[in-house]
Write a structure and sequence with these properties.
The chain has eight helices and no strands. By secondary structure, the protein is mainly alpha-helical. It has two domains: 87 residues, Serine Threonine Protein Phosphatase 5, Tetratricopeptide repeat (Alpha Horseshoe), CATH 1.25.40.10; 49 residues, no CATH class.
Length: 137
């Protein structure tokens, strides 16, 4: 969603009406992450996982939050779990490749990039994104 503040308000309302609505927590995780509210993002991912332990999107979102925080090893743990739950999700491999790259684990990053590409990710776009991240460090 392009307006994370508005999305959070809408998702707050959905959660008030239905506190067990797992996808509301998952989606709010992403919105908090886009706003840099990392602790709230992690709390919502944790809540989603408590409600539905096999929801890979919660692990993906929490992994992305940990990546943003520079906690790459922790992010990899979440991407590993997302892959165990749904091994055909290209985004999990692409995101894990980013974590591995930022940890200078280039061989593992290459393997994940190759897997992400086989699952439909554009290799050039992913490599450009990774190069941009590296240049910002």
């Amino acid at each position: 969603m392009e307006q994370p503040d508005r999305a959070i308000k809408d998702l707050d309302q959905a959660i008030r009406l239905e506190p067990q609505l797992v996808m509301a927590y998952v989606n709010r995780t992403g919105s908090y992450g886009r706003l840099g509210q990392y602790e709230r993002s992690i709390q919502d991912a944790d809540a989603a996982i408590r409600l539905e332990p096999k929801i890979s999107q919660a692990y993906l979102n929490r992994g992305a939050t940990f990546n943003e925080m520079g906690r790459f090893e922790r992010a990899i743990q979440d991407y590993d779990q997302a892959i165990r739950l749904e091994p055909q999700v290209a985004l999990a491999f692409a995101n894990r490749a980013i974590s591995y790259t930022l940890l200078a684990k280039d061989e593992k990053a290459k393997q994940d990039i190759d897997r992400a590409v086989r699952l439909g990710v554009d290799r050039r776009a992913l490599q450009r994104f990774i190069e941009e991240l590296i240049s910002q460090r």
